[in-house]
Amino acid sequence: MSESQFSEGLEDVVAASSEICFIDGDEGRLVYRGYDIHDLVGGGSTFEEVIYLLWHGELPSTEQLQSFRLSLSTERALSQGAVEVLKTLPKTGNAMEMLRTLVSASGLFDPDDGDTSYDASVRMAVRLVSQLPTMVTAIERYKTGQAQIEPRKDLSLAGNFLYMLNGVEPDERDARALDIALILHADHELNASTFSARVTAATLSDLYSAVTSAVGTLKGPLHGGANEQVMLMLKEIGHLEDAEAWITKALEEKRRIMGFGHRVYHTEDPRATHLRRMSQEMGERKGNTTYYEISKVVESVVREKKKLNPNVDFYSASMYYMMGIPIHLFTPVFAVSRISGWTAHVLEQYRHNRLIRPRADFIGIKRRAFVKLEER
Ligand SMILES: CC(=O)SCCNC(=O)CCNC(=O)[C@H](O)C(C)(C)COP(=O)(O)OP(=O)(O)OC[C@H]1O[C@@H](n2cnc3c(N)ncnc32)[C@H](O)[C@@H]1OP(=O)(O)O
Ligand SMILES: O=C([O-])CC(=O)C(=O)O
Fold first, then answer.
1. What is the pTM of this model?
2. Lowest mean pLDDT among 4-8, 169-173, 268-272, 328-332
3. Quick check: 163 pLDDT over 80?
């Protein structure tokens, strides 16, 4: 294999063809099935509509959306098996690891388990999209020793998530803010977790296995896990007047600043544009803009000194925090959204499958004489 074929971290390597999501990293554009995210958010689209769009390639009509919402809302309850598995997990466990375990276990209790047909995978995708919010909120209530709250069919996916998390009627403005955040996180081409989902699917393994791979990949702090690290950083900074000195020192110490930089965007991440505004609005509405203001200082110093832009994980952190979502649920909330993209990609992979199996640029020793144990 020639050296020119090798790209560290697969940078700029085209590893699949896809019709789902287009990113222009120079212009800072993110497009789902031809629709710019700015138009979807500005035009009042909903997360349910975006899931339909990612899966079917078209926006739904009123009737299609109505029946799609119904099919999602009737699949919200977890299987009894998954509920039992949750009770065996350590309450102090990492929420993403618990989510990964519940996704994996739910596959065994899915009524279509073992059916390898495409139609069965579509039914599994409906269940996973519907049940991830239930899994995440069940994990939180289990961790905090509170009774589980049964999902409601009459609420949107975002509204029902907040309802199951807090046990009270969700504030409409919070539900819409979460709905928009879910739209913004829904898909992002061949990001690391979607790539792992596609690699698993390409062996013709099942949808739950593919999503289990994806959840494990999203957890890492260089990917979806960054949003939790951002909030921990903002809390460590603590006071607006300390922000500039803190971040300047961190950069001098050559620390990696979570929520900044991106493999594909060379300009502002278009999702960050919305999340910055939403973080400010959420802070103002909840009467505390400190974390938004600290974030603005961090952004301006990192931009000036490192020429790095905030990514999707930067302003989502302060926005979720002010909405009252616990920090350890930030990455699980990302999964509640990205499950729409993962399943769209896995279904696309199944439709046009070929095993994904790259090569390694071997840099080790190619041949040595074996020496018996007693002679070493
Ligand atoms: C949903 C998402 O996954 S969005 C990304 C979430 N992840 C984060 O926010 C974590 C922080 N960011 C990063 O680690 C990176 O920017 C990544 C992983 C997102 C992209 O990384 P890559 O494109 O592979 O860039 P790479 O890691 O090679 O870094 C290139 C250079 O930029 C620097 N750099 C990149 N991001 C950052 C950062 N956030 N803070 C400080 N320096 C950075 C690196 O130190 C490196 O500098 P060097 O050449 O002097 O060593
Ligand atoms: O595309 C990426 O590499 C990471 C990202 O922003 C995402 O998954 O949303």
1. 0.97
2. 4-8
3. yes
Pocket of ligand 1 (CB under 6 A): 9, 191, 222-224, 226, 256-263, 306, 308, 311-313
CB 201 within 8 A of CB 349: yes
Q: Known catalytic residues? A: 262, 313
ipTM rounded to 2 decimals:
0.98
188: CA distance to ligand 2 center in Å? Answer: 5
Residue nearest to atom 41 of ligand 1 (CA): 256
* In a shared domain, residues 314 and 346: no
Q: Which residues contact 240 (CB under 8 A, 6 or more apart)?
A: 290, 293, 294, 297
Confidence of residue 5 (pLDDT cuts 50, 70, 90): confident
Asked if 188 and 51 sit in the same domain, the reply is yes
* Sheet order of strands, 21-24 included: 21-24, 29-32, 35-36
Are 177 and 274 within one domain?
no
How far is ligand 2, taken at its centre, from the CA of residue 312, in Å? 8
Q: Which of 314, 326, 319, 316 is nearest to 282 (CA)?
A: 319
Q: Is residue 263 part of a domain?
A: yes
Specify the amino acid at residue 200: T
**Residue 356: inside a domain:** no
Percent of the chain with pLDDT over 70: 99
Q: How far is the CA of 261 from the centre of ligand 1 (A)?
A: 5
Structurally, the chain folds into a number of domains equal to 2
CB 177 within 8 A of CB 278: yes
Question: Which residue segment(s) compose the domain that 305 sits in?
Answer: 226-323
Question: Taking all residues of the chain, what is their mean pLDDT, rounded to a whole number?
Answer: 97
100 touches ligand 2 (CB under 6 Å): no
Q: Are residues 342 and 287 in the same domain?
A: no
Could you tell me if 311 and 260 are in contact, meaning their C-beta atoms sit under 8 angstroms apart?
Answer: yes
Whether residue 2 is predicted with pLDDT greater than 70 in this model: the reply is: no
- For residue 376, count other CB atoms closer than 10 A to its CB: 5
User: What value does the mean pLDDT take over residues 39-49?
Assistant: 98
For residue 249, being part of any structural domain is answered with yes
Q: How far from chain centre, in Å, is Cα 90? A: 24
Predicted pLDDT of residue 4: 56
